[in-house]
Amino acid sequence: MPRKFHGLKKPKVRQDWSKETLYNLSRLVTPPAANKTFFQQKWMAKSMTRAYHNPYVREGQWTRMFDRRLPSVVSMNHQYLARHDGSEQATGRGSGAEEAPVMRYDGERGQEKRIEKTPYMHMTFYPLERRLDTAIWRALFASSVKQARQFVVHGWVKVNGKRMVYPGYQLNPGDMFQVDPERVMFATGARKKKKTSAVSDQDGREEREADEQGSRVAKSQEEKEVEEQNEVEDPESEAGAATLETDEERE
């Protein structure tokens, strides 16, 4: 028997908006690792992270995508760049002068705080975050990664104006993707219709009333147009009759 995707005994956070995921997220705690071996710690960490980061990607695909050289982005201090011209990088022993870490001012607390180090471990799954289906879910265009994958496969997603049907497409900086608005509304909470629900009857009643009102408006517009045409034609006929009478009287 296959395991449940949203298990409650062993909570695992998934990339979706389901109530099970929210419940498991509220119960999520860091598992104890003091009495675990190194292999057990790796197994536990891998089971938790791979359950969240797009579990539909097979292990072989993830192995090919994974790169041990993790990229990093360091925030540039504009005040430091304005104060120095780069010559300090050549001072010292050829690798720049050793100075104290650059501090920045925290406006909320009114004090200076040390710049945090670059979180390299957060970039472990960056190849999965570049995937098109994951980006759609991150942009709140779908309620889950699986639903975003369905949108891509069915041709409701465009990348740079061209239809893209490959959910594993790796987005590049500057790429723009768009999803059909109707699909987005359906995925993000639009009212669903069911044959046995009272909501469907209400929707059908509202649609029928809207159709009837629209038909009435269309009929009234047609009647007004006909009346206007008749009013335009009547003066011409009266003028023609008057000219005929005057011609007969002259004879």
TrEMBL record:
Molecular function terms from GO: rRNA binding; structural constituent of ribosome
GO biological process: ribosomal small subunit biogenesis
Coiled-coil parts of chain: none
Keywords attached to this entry: Ribonucleoprotein, Ribosomal protein, RNA-binding, rRNA-binding
Limits of the RNA-binding S4 domain: 130-190
Acidic residues: bias regions: 224-237
Pfam families, per the entry: S4
Ribosomal protein found in the keyword field: yes
Superkingdom of origin: Eukaryota
Start and end residues of each stretch annotated as Disordered: 83-104, 188-251
GO cellular component: mitochondrial small ribosomal subunit
Biased composition (Basic and acidic residues): 202-223
Family: Belongs to the universal ribosomal protein uS4 family.
Name used for this protein in its record: RNA-binding S4 domain-containing protein
Source organism of the structure: Hortaea werneckii (Black yeast)
